[in-house]
Amino acid sequence: MDNEFSEQEIETGRVLFAGPCDFMLGVVSMETLPPPVMPEVAFAGRSNVGKSSLLNAITGRKALARTSNTPGRTRELNFFNLNDRLRLVDLPGYGYAKASKKEVAGWNRLIRDYLKGRVTLRRVCLLIDSRHGLKDLDIEIMKMLDVAAVPYQIVLTKTDKIKPTELEKLKAKTAEKIARRPAAFPFIAATSSEKGFGLPELRAGLAQLAE
């Protein structure tokens, strides 16, 4: 499902995300979370789905979030303060198999506890690699968010890597899969961090959540 944003909404998003955006802290336990004083948007997805690249792209920075070809590089909940109006939260990738089972279990528990219990969490951007589509792990996270009544939005990444016809089929198939899910936001964002596709619309949608 596509969503039309007005020129004013696109501009509001551009201005917000062009403003100051600073790394606040990395969190490894629920006890060390920053005070819940402003709206938060979390970015979740399987390892190597392109979370750090997307965060850098939507904020127009080259190194806000660290990018790496090594899956599992983000091992903390990393908080960024966007213009004192919105917090962006980069979550560890789920499904990374090369760390120890204990480490993976720890990250996954932290992700789930944060997603289920954070009062200021306004939306989860659930990133899906457009070359692979929704996988079982993604469905698990969606079920958990549905139960916790946490709104989430599917963000397709790396859309420049597939043909436009394939992308349209993927969007239709994904829309079908989320249609009956109670917490799923109907607008599917199709993005490319490399080419800039879909970023103005994603910014416009997220800017509406800022105070």
UniProtKB/TrEMBL annotation:
Domain EngB-type G as annotated: residue spans: 37-211
Family affiliation: Belongs to the TRAFAC class TrmE-Era-EngA-EngB-Septin-like GTPase superfamily. EngB GTPase family.
InterPro entries: G_ENGB_dom, GTP-bd, GTP-bd_ribosome_bio_YsxC, P-loop_NTPase
Species per Swiss-Prot/TrEMBL record: Aquisalinus luteolus
Membrane spanning stretches: none
Co-factor requirement: Mg(2+)
KW Repressor (keyword) present: no
Protein name: Probable GTP-binding protein EngB
